[in-house]
Amino acid sequence: MTKSAAKRIIILSDGTGETAAQMAKAAMVQFGNQNVYFTRYKNVRHEAQIEAICDDAAINLDLLVYTIVSPQLRAFLLNRAREKTIPCVDLLGPILVGLASYFGYEPKSIAGLLHDVNDSYFERIAAMEYTIAHDDGKNLTGLEKADVVILGISRTSKTPLSMYLSHQGWRVANIPLIQGFEVPKEIHGIDQRRVIGLTIDVQELSTIRRARLERLGQNQGGEYADPEKVNQEIEYANEIFRRNRRWPIFNVTGKALEETASEIIKLMASRRLTPPHTLEHLGQLDVKPKQE
Predict the structure, then answer these.
(1) What is the rounded CA–CA span in Å between residue 138 and residue 159?
(2) pLDDT tens digits, residue range 57-72?
(3) Which of 67, 77, 241, 243 lies in disulfide reach of 92, CB 3.0 to 4.6 Å?
(4) pTM of the predicted model as reported, rounded to 2 decimal places
């Protein structure tokens, strides 16, 4: 049996074309072992580009599969395809029209927005990976890449706060302050504007530590939750903070995690140290970065 000639499917997009390519390949699964191959044209945003692609597709009447947000460019492509009898499938146009009808207003029609969303998503994933790797002082390498470095004694919410910020795209390192040990020298080698300290009321911290010991089924009579010992640790941390007055101190006593996180983000925004991919969150926090 003679093998049929390969057919070509042209993927055309004003962005990366990844969405169109995945959808086309997913659909091809329903058509068995067809002899097809794909050609992808990315960042198609001008009529001249469409003209050239249609001329190419017209030679063998290749199938055009496209995702274009601009209604003008979609109309131009459809007209050229009809003139040249090129088969085509518009993957994005119908859903944009349907959504516009449903919501009662027209879409933004800005090319490449999905790519920007994906970039933001991957930045957040990278931030979470960084934060996990730099939790509780277990990794001091790459500290200069942190958006925020949090210092505090045990059970001052360093890890939960770090994880909360990382889910919003902040790379956070948190380092415990342990009585009798010096602050790691690596901290003094980074941008001091990014270093913050956490403090807390003695009684609240003692209560938190007793609750932790209870959950772990351990003896609550030791030094870990003893108010006097807790006070010594807090004073030790406060003395470090007094020697490093450039580090802002946040008192977490009685505060929800979100409240402290919001205060930190506002501070960093005022210092123009907000990671670019997190700027969309500033509106939710009623924060505006300073203008140059």
Answers:
(1) 12
(2) 999 999 999 998 888 9
(3) 67
(4) 0.59
- In SS3 terms, the chain reads as CCCCCCEEEEEEECCCCHHHHHHHHHHHHHHCCCCEEEEEECCCCCHHHHHHHHHHHHHHCCEEEEECCCHHHHHHHHHHHHHCCCCEEECCHHHHHHHHHHHCCCCCCCCCHHHHHHHHHHHHHHHHHHHHHCHHHCCCCCHHHCCEEEEECCCCCHHHHHHHHHCCCCCEEEEECCCCCCCCHHHHHCCHHHEEEEECCHHHHHHHHHHHHHHCCCCCCCHHHCHHHHHHHHHHHHHHHHHCCCCCEEECCCCCHHHHHHHHHHHHHHCCCCCHHHHHHCCCCCCCCCCC
Say which residue, 85 or 122, is predicted with more confidence.
Answer: 85
pLDDT tens sequence across 263-282: 999 999 999 999 987 765 44
With vertex at residue 78, the alpha carbon angle to CA 74 and CA 83, rounded to the nearest 5 degrees, is: 150
CA-CA distance, 215 to 220, in Å (whole number)?
10
d(CA 141, CA 214): 35
Per-residue pLDDT band for 119 (boundaries 50, 70, 90) equals low
